[in-house]
Design brief:
This protein is of the alpha+beta class. The protein has helices at 4-24, 26-46, 80-87, 90-100, 106-118, 138-155, 160-189, 202-231, 253-286, and strands spanning 51-58, 119-123, 128-135, 238-240.
């Protein structure tokens, strides 16, 4: 029991001694982190700022985009994954860059690589496409994101050759639809299918007309899909237009200042304690 008291007293003296050392260097421990924080704030404020503009694209109902077997499948069905890849393609990026700053040749290629590094595109699980564009100013980030979205919408319009094929198919489908309407009208107006055809009873005529009506509905769907493919997608698919950032994402000035201040305070405190320990050791050796 008697040997525990000195140990406890020594521990108390040690803690008190450390507190006294910290109090003796209070000015250094206070001013040091403040100066470091101010320096960090100055450096962080001079660093290039980064703003991010966000946009969301929602494709139309998939049922309206799927090409049926009877339709001309020159235009592939857009999916979120395909759209995400297309937005990052050189074709879209080049169109966006040309609309922002007319460039060509090596300059355009260099700008395309730089723009691709600032662009993030993700096909979300809910079927939407989310893209983000970073720039050194809020206005530039929004402007660039809008140029990319507009460039992608432009690429959804068929090219000259594809347009010609679609227009030819559209004429064929419309002609087929007119023929079906005439045939249904003829069946409804007479009880015979052609002059030399056998007479049809009520059930046969109903089944035939039902099949023809179903085929006619398919032809209408074909026309709708082909016309939509000819027009391409419009701005209605942009669920959220490119945003105008209100705050920078980089550099995080407050985080940098706090980290610099805390780290400086910790290092200074460690330095003060080590210096005190070294001085104490030297004093013991001298004695």
């Amino acid at each position: 029991m008697k040997t525990e008291a000195p140990t406890s007293t020594a521990a108390e003296i040690t803690v008190l001694d450390l507190l006294m050392v910290a109090a003796g260097n209070l000015k250094l421990l206070v001013l040091g982190p403040i100066i470091a924080g101010l320096l960090a704030w100055g450096v962080a404020s001079s660093m290039p700022k980064t703003f991010i503009s966000y946009a969301t694209i929602a494709l139309p109902d998939r049922d309206l985009l799927v090409m049926p077997p009877t339709a001309f499948a020159v235009v592939s069905t857009p999916t979120p994954q395909r759209v995400a890849v297309m937005i990052r393609s050189p074709r879209v990026l080049d169109l966006a860059l040309i609309s922002l700053t007319p460039l060509n040749g090596p300059a355009l290629e260099a700008q395309r690589v730089a723009l691709a590094s600032k662009l993030q595109v993700e096909a979300a699980g809910d079927g939407t496409i989310r893209l983000s564009v970073s720039a050194e100013s809020a206005e530039q980030a929004q402007k660039t994101a809008k140029a990319i979205v507009d460039a992608w919408l432009t690429t959804t319009v068929p090219r000259k050759r594809d347009r010609a094929d679609l227009e030819s198919r559209l004429l064929e489908v419309r002609s087929s639809l007119r023929a079906l309407r005439l045939l249904i009208s003829h069946i409804n107006s007479t009880r015979e299918f052609g002059d030399s055809s056998p007479r049809l009873d009520v059930e046969e005529r109903s089944a035939l007309i039902s099949s023809l009506n179903e085929l006619q509905a398919r032809r209408r769907d074909d026309i709708t899909i082909i016309e939509r493919a000819l027009d391409g997608l419009d701005s209605d698919v942009v669920l959220q237009a490119p945003t105008l950032p209100t705050q920078q994402v980089k550099p995080k000035v407050l985080s940098i200042v706090l980290l610099a201040s805390v780290m400086t305070g910790f290092l200074l405190l460690l330095f003060v304690f080590m210096r005190h320990a070294w001085r104490s050791t030297m004093c013991v050796k001298e004695i």
